[in-house]
């Protein structure tokens, strides 16, 4: 559940998480809007100034629980506009205050905030430690039943982190459990957050039906809850990302995808949501396509600069996007530099699938240099990671590229092997394909692979046996 603080706000504004015995956030007078109201109105810097002033006053004269609540609020606000390190430090302060109180709810939520900021910074192993500690705290509340507002948040966010690390099945299982709990208990914020996570996972798997359903569910829940602009921005972008993916197969979706991305970008700018501004810029570059390379480079460069300045978990993928643009314009040296940077960052952050996408672009640089061994090795590494994660679209593309390259090089048995693997992967996507254009595209790809297998078998039947020890570029015997 990606935006922790607004879960606490939801307990007051939306009535979804009643928290007994904790003081409310300070009420705003008609002359002086609260920091939350300023943030919602698009006055992010004024909101920060007001929030820090309120926090200073409460730290000097408030109760311990008030100090904790205000500290958590400012951490939420800093995180919402992309100040991850500042949010992390505030969450550490909140944990110290909660520990002094000995309140399981306060301790658990503070740990969740730490996990949230650690995730934003790409510190996934550390984030998992915080979420596991929060889950343990939720289950050990003086013999009472587990604390839903801690257990649900920590478990759902743990699942999201696992998915980002390429463990799609394990991550989805945790998110499904908590999102279903949120549905049963009418916790709209949990549905909004969980739905967005599940939509991204479904898209990775190539299941557009599931992805669309979960994205729509997330957006409806976020709009009805009206608790966090961040959640609504994320849901808008997830939905736009799905439409953009559809446009690759069916150009009729192109204008709709661009319109949705531009609308999401405008909404993110209203509240200085830097992460989603950058994500929208990256998506908009893809939507523009070949029409305007200069505009695309400007968009991706701006996104990369923002994400690096935030220390964001997405900074490596932004470098990869910039490298891919350089590759499109045959600026191979620049492409290689950005792609290598993006690959290294994503590998360091355990973003295995994002690293696998970059490997495919680096493989094309190897091909341009006639280094066929390196070309194949990178595509195979990409294919292996995608298959292990269940990211079927990436797995199929990688497997098809490998089969084609091996066929060109004359390694027929190896090409047949990879062609058969690709056809099997495409069949998995066909099981979930929901519209005629998508099914037609997948069926044509599978048919082409099957035809290659037949051609290879015919050629092998009429070819003399190769000498012993004849191997392909991967060291696997060719026949």
Note down, in words, how this protein is organized:
Residues 1-30 and 475-479 have low confidence and may be disordered. The protein contains 22 helices and no strands. Helix 16 (315-328) runs antiparallel to helix 17. It has 479 residues and is an all-alpha fold. The chain has a domain at 382-479. It has helices spanning 4-13, 35-40, 44-61, 64-80, 84-101, 104-120, 124-139, 148-164, 168-184, 188-205, 208-225, 229-249, 254-270, 274-288, 293-310, 315-328, 332-348, 352-368, 372-389, 392-409, 412-430, 436-461.
In terms of quaternary structure, the protein is: single chain
Tell me the radius of gyration.
25 Å
Parts with pLDDT < 50 across at least 5 consecutive residues? 1-30, 475-479
Apparent shape = elongated
Number of strand segments = 0
Tally of separate helices: 22
Q: What is the helix content?
A: over 70%
Find the structural class using helix and strand composition: mainly alpha
Q: Strand fraction band?
A: under 5%
Task: Please give the alpha-carbon distance between the first and last residues.
Answer: 51 Å
The main pleated sheet reads as: none
The mean pLDDT is 89
How would the blueprint of this fold be written?
Blueprint: H1 4-13, H2 35-40, H3 44-61, H4 64-80, H5 84-101, H6 104-120, H7 124-139, H8 148-164, H9 168-184, H10 188-205, H11 208-225, H12 229-249, H13 254-270, H14 274-288, H15 293-310, H16 315-328, H17 332-348, H18 352-368, H19 372-389, H20 392-409, H21 412-430, H22 436-461
Helix pairs in contact: 3-4, 4-5, 4-6, 5-6, 6-7, 6-8, 7-8, 8-9, 8-10, 9-10, 10-11, 10-12, 11-12, 12-13, 12-14, 13-14, 14-15, 15-16, 16-17, 16-18, 17-18, 18-19, 19-20, 20-21, 21-22
């Amino acid at each position: 559940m990606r935006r922790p603080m607004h879960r606490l706000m939801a307990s007051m504004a939306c009535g979804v998480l009643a928290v007994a015995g904790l003081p409310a956030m300070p009420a705003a007078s008609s002359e002086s809007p609260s920091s939350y109201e300023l943030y919602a109105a698009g006055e992010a810097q004024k909101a920060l100034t007001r929030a820090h002033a309120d926090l200073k006053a409460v730290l000097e004269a408030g109760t311990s629980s008030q100090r904790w609540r205000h500290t958590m609020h400012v951490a939420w606000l800093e995180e919402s506009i992309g100040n991850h390190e500042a949010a992390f430090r505030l969450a550490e302060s909140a944990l110290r205050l909660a520990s002094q109180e000995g309140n399981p709810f306060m301790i658990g939520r503070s740990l969740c905030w730490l996990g949230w900021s650690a995730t934003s910074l790409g510190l996934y192993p550390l984030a998992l430690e915080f979420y596991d500690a929060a889950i343990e705290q939720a289950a050990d509340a003086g013999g009472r039943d587990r604390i839903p507002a801690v257990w649900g948040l920590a478990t759902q966010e743990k699942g999201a982190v696992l998915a980002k690390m390429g463990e799609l099945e394990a991550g989805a299982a945790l998110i499904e459990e908590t999102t279903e709990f949120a549905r049963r208990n009418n916790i709209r914020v949990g549905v909004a957050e969980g739905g967005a996570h599940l939509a991204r996972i479904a898209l990775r798997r190539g299941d557009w039906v599931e992805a669309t359903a979960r994205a729509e569910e997330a957006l409806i829940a976020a709009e009805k809850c009206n608790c966090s602009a961040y959640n609504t921005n994320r849901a808008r972008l997830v939905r736009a990302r799905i439409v953009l993916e559809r446009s690759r197969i069916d150009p009729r979706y192109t204008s709709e995808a661009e319109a949705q991305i531009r609308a999401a970008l405008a909404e993110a700018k209203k509240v200085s949501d830097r992460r989603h501004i950058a994500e929208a810029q990256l998506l908009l570059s893809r939507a523009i396509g070949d029409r305007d390379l200069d505009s695309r480079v400007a968009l991706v460069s701006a996104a990369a600069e923002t994400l690096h300045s935030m220390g964001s978990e997405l900074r490596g993928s932004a470098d990869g996007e910039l490298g891919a643009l350089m590759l499109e314009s045959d600026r191979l040296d620049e492409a290689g530099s950005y792609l290598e940077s993006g690959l290294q960052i994503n590998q360091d952050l355990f973003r295995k699938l994002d690293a696998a996408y970059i490997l495919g672009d680096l493989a094309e640089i190897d091909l341009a240099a006639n280094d066929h061994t390196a070309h194949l090795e990178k595509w195979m590494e990409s294919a292996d990671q995608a298959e292990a994660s269940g990211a079927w679209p990436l797995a199929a593309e990688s497997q098809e590229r490998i089969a084609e390259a091996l066929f060109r090089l004359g390694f027929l048995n190896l090409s047949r092997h990879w062609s058969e693997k690709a056809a099997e992967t495409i069949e998995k996507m066909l099981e979930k394909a929901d519209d005629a254009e998508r099914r037609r595209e997948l069926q044509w790809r599978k048919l082409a692979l099957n035809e290659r297998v037949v051609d290879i078998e015919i050629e092998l039947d009429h070819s003399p046996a190769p000498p012993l020890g004849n191997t392909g570029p991967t060291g696997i015997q060719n026949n």
